[in-house]
Recover the amino acids of this structure.
């Protein structure tokens, strides 16, 4: 199954919550979720009762869309989490949050995870001084994620950083003085996940 490349705002409406896929637009009243907070094809609220399967499926799909993952990628993270010594849900959130593209987004070095993936794929990012071009690279405590010197001087990169400098950071990340780098201070906390994923439902979906 390929990556879902459909309209991003429809994905948010389908999941009935903001997934923050469009960068700055998600934080303004131009966001379609502000005007039409119901799924595409429905003219307002619906009274249909959801089955337990559908509830779990939608939570899984919401998580996939938030992090921009294909089904096989996401399932692999779930299986890896099950084999972890941690609580499965906490381990899953940790893996998803530690991805390099997510760290860039969370720290304000990118306006969206899609943009973060582009920055990584195009060779603008380094970790601990080493160029990394794999968005799924898992960061560790103590890592320093930054723009390469040749990229940091580009006006487009400076504009991205300026646009996102007021964004609040989770406690496990710290932004550098010039805003062009971020440090990983520790492990992500499940409670800090902004989108409030019900990870227990995701684990249950794959355990059926």
């Amino acid at each position: 199954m390929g990556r879902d490349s459909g309209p991003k705002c429809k994905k948010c409406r389908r999941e009935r919550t903001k997934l923050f896929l469009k960068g700055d637009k998600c934080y303004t009243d131009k966001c379609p979720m502000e005007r039409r907070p119901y799924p595409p094809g429905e003219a307002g609220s619906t009274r249909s009762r959801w089955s337990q399967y559908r509830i779990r499926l939608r939570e899984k799909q919401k998580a996939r869309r938030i992090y921009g993952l294909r089904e096989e990628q996401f399932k692999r993270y779930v299986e890896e989490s099950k084999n972890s010594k941690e609580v499965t849900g906490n381990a899953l959130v940790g893996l998803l949050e530690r991805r390099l593209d997510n760290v860039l987004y969370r720290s304000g070095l990118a306006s969206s995870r899609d943009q973060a993936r582009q920055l990584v794929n195009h060779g603008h990012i380094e970790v601990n001084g080493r160029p990394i071009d794999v968005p799924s690279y898992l960061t560790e405590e103590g890592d320093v994620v930054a723009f390469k010197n040749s990229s940091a001087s580009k006006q487009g990169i400076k504009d991205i950083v300026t646009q996102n400098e007021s964004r609040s950071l989770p406690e496990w990340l710290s932004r550098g003085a010039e805003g062009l780098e971020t440090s990983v201070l520790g492990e992500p906390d499940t409670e800090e996940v902004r989108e409030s994923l019900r990870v227990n439902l995701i684990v249950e979906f794959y355990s059926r």
